[in-house]
Amino acid sequence: MSYQPLQGQKALVTGASSGIGAGVAVALAAAGAEVVVNYASSVAGAEKVVDEIQAAGGKALALKADVSNEVEVAAMFSAMFAACGTIDILVNNAGLQQDALFEDMTLAQWNRVIGVNLTGMFLCSQLAVREMRRRGPDPALSKATGKIICMSSVHEIIPWAGHVNYAASKGGVKLFMQSLAQEVAPHRIRVNSVGPGAIQTPINRAAWDTPEALQALLKLIPYGRIGSPEDIGKAAVWLASDDADYVTGQTIFVDGGMTLYPEFADGG
Ligand code: NAD
Q1: Does ligand 1 lie within 6 Å of residue 221's CB atom?
Q2: DSSP readout, 19-48?
């Protein structure tokens, strides 16, 4: 049996029917957590993740909810508490892009991206914090009373023309995460972000599914490879574990050096 620092803990991963969320759900389960695999529409994708976890001897269940919808989020948390009893780890991963040049961007595109990427984190984190505080600490499970991990992006610091709504949402995640971390630290709830660089998932298929696109993308990655959901899953397990017990309010960039201003490597 591999190292299981999350043994017996209950985790919820939003947007976990594909990509990074699926990778994080599988990694948390392998580390011993019972995982709720949230999905917005792809029940088949969510069930595939649940099957993969169960086939490896882990515990998981799929729950549907649009994270931007207050009523659906409340129903999802109620269903999780009925099935698992409580929540120890929340991974706010659900996110989407609706790209447009600024002058053409519709209010609907703006509101949808902010609604899912930022308001979704507000709704899920609020119910998680309330439950963690109600339940209190369980030192047999973890030094912290609860852990929240936000899936941010390198675009919480790198501006992104043509994606103003997305970059604004991730910039918002940065101070959402830090302000919440400051507020709940006295209750021993740790809040951190993972900031992925370019990870091979459906959200950015156009950036890697032709050799030309991949070559252009690799110019932005000093480490010379695109990332995988497993790279992010490992960071999430560490942040959720007691190995990171003194870490709160931080963004861990997992980006192959994308935030290192790669264009300055042989210029500037
Ligand atoms: P993805 O499209 O595979 O995953 C996003 C998931 O969110 C999907 O499963 C989708 O169904 C779900 N989702 C969308 N709207 C939802 C809603 N309203 N309610 C619940 N779930 C919803 O792409 P991904 O790359 O795995 O993205 C996961 C997260 O990682 C996102 O927050 C994204 O911004 C972030 N991210 C990705 C990359 C990358 O390179 N792939 C880089 C930086 C950040």
Answers
A1: no
A2: HHHHHHHHHHHHTT-EEEEEESS-HHHHHH
